[in-house]
Design goal:
The protein is mainly alpha-helical. The protein has 20 helices and no strands. The longest helix has 34 residues, at 73-106.
């Protein structure tokens, strides 16, 4: 079930809210049980066969956490290793078995047809969430052991499919707060407004950019320079507004239940360097990789060479987390290389890159990395990279043919057989320009709602234009109502969120 579907908006969500507040008014635990059951139904709506997998994972990890906490120090680490290994083995089977076998067949180490294992939706997110919980149990940083609350913490439907990656210390006290079982007008006003903003990002921007992307990134498309740049930039903003929109919708939905989720995006394309980018993009995953992978590997504590090694390993594994394929390995390796070069520059020069070209260089590096992230294979990615550099030539639309003589005087002799994959009669290119303007210049969600603490983090930064700061006033209500209507009319074809595949 998708957040951007009529079944979710007008059937599932109203019933869940009614049940939660109705039962919660009688007894808080009943509301928690209803929300947990509704979350399992939400997951099973996609494929009911994988509900036992999710429930089994919750029960086994809950039992493992209790054992780890009750175990003496000398054997606690062994139980943690066993529990984490079991989680990673489950993830490896469903997510990487096809990839590993296909790779072995490709180099002649195995023979026969490959496996066709279906990837359970959201498995990366609920696996990482539970691994973090186990590690914190080992560190004696957990004090919540009620199975019902733990089950809701893992399966909570606003974040279950595509994050944010939650931390138990952020969520469990909120889930246990009995005051949240009573509906509050403030929560509904803020939550619905944030949800509508996220829905608009998805339906009015991200989905409109998709036609500019898919044909150019198809295997064998062999695009030319202008096509390649339009498609690369379109995917850069499509991915951002799609995933940022999902995160906003998750934060808004959760706020209806009185629960604040952590921030996941903070205008990442305005980053001044690549480290700043990763502090702004998919922030909860970056936090997980830092706290549970980079720091345990040694972080920056054992010299520069080991620091660079740890950065590269962290990003390579972060790339593999996103998907089982060599394209994701290369994408992670590129970002690992970017981080190594950035820290090497800081070490040699003693200062950060100047803002005026550091931000532009960072954005360009991110766009080039997104090419291999989106491409179906390395050959297609290499072809598009070549096209971006002009290796495949330049092709202009037929409408510019009358200006050929003028361009020839400038020493330019492009072809005029049309840009094959870009349909300029659609809204795609204008939406691309609007998306770039919004990403670079407009206030982000947490800045717009800065006075009402939209997420766990305390936002103090005001938008550049204070008139854009949201307030519970009739004008804002009317504006968001119009925005919602525009979104509903754009939902004639429901599309999945891009991060569902991870």
């Amino acid at each position: 079930m998708l957040f951007n579907s009529f079944a979710f908006l007008f059937l599932y969500l109203p019933l869940v809210l009614l049940g939660y507040f109705g039962l919660g008014r009688l007894r808080a635990e009943w509301g928690i049980a209803w929300l947990a059951a509704a979350s399992l139904f939400f997951y099973g709506y996609w494929n009911v066969r994988y509900v036992p997998l999710l429930m089994g994972s919750i029960i086994v990890n809950y039992g493992s956490a209790r054992l780890i906490s009750a175990t003496a120090e000398r054997v606690r680490k062994r139980r943690l290793v066993a529990a984490v290994t079991a989680n990673l083995a489950l993830l490896a089977y469903y997510k990487y078995a096809n990839f590993l076998l296909d790779s072995a067949i490709g180099v002649g180490l195995a023979h026969g047809p490959g496996w066709q294992i279906v990837l359970p939706i959201g498995i990366s997110f609920f696996t990482f969430t539970q691994i973090a919980f186990l590690v914190d149990c080992y560190r004696s940083a957990v004090c919540e052991y009620r199975l019902l609350h733990y089950a809701l913490f893992v399966s909570y439907f606003p974040h279950l499919i595509a994050g944010p990656v939650l931390h138990h210390k952020e969520m469990m006290p909120q889930l246990a707060d009995g005051n949240n079982a009573r509906p509050q007008a403030a929560h509904f006003a803020v939550g619905l407004s944030i949800f509508v903003l996220g829905l608009a990002k998805k339906t009015l921007i991200a989905d409109k950019l998709a036609p500019l992307v898919a044909p150019v990134f198809a295997a064998g498309a062999h695009p030319q320079l202008i096509q390649a740049w339009i498609a690369a930039l379109a995917y850069t903003f499509q991915l951002y507004f799609d995933f940022s929109g999902y995160s906003d919708m998750a934060i808004g939905l959760s706020r209806l239940f009185g629960v604040k989720l952590p921030l996941n995006f903070n205008s990442p394309y305005r980053a001044r360097d690549i480290s700043d980018f990763w502090r702004r993009w998919h922030m909860t995953l970056s936090r997980f990789l830092r706290d549970y992978l980079y720091v345990p590997l040694g972080g920056s504590r054992h010299g520069q060479l080991k620091r660079y090694r740890n950065l590269m390993l962290t990003m390579l594994l972060g790339g593999l987390w996103h998907g089982a394929g060599w394209t994701f390995v290369v994408w992670g390796g590129l970002h690992g290389l970017y981080l190594v070069l950035h820290h090497g520059w800081r070490r040699v020069s003693g200062e950060a890159a100047p803002r005026w070209w550091g931000a532009a260089l960072t954005f360009l590096a991110v766009v080039l990395a997104w090419v291999v992230f989106r491409a179906p294979d390395l050959a297609t990615a290499t072809d598009i990279w070549g096209a971006l550099a002009g290796r495949n030539g330049v092709c202009l639309p037929h409408a510019l043919a009358p200006h050929a003589a003028w361009l020839a005087r400038l020493g330019l002799h492009p072809g005029y057989d049309g840009i094959r994959w870009i349909d300029f009669s659609t809204a795609g290119v204008p939406v691309l320009l609007v998306a770039a303007l919004l990403a670079f210049c407009a206030p982000n969600t947490q800045e717009i709602f800065c006075h009402y603490q939209p997420c766990i983090e305390r936002i103090v930064r005001l938008p550049r234009w204070r008139l854009l700061a949201w307030a519970p006033r009739p004008a804002w209500s009317a504006g968001y109502a119009v925005l919602l209507i525009c979104c509903l009319f754009s939902m004639n074809k429901v599309s999945e969120f891009l991060y569902f595949q991870f």
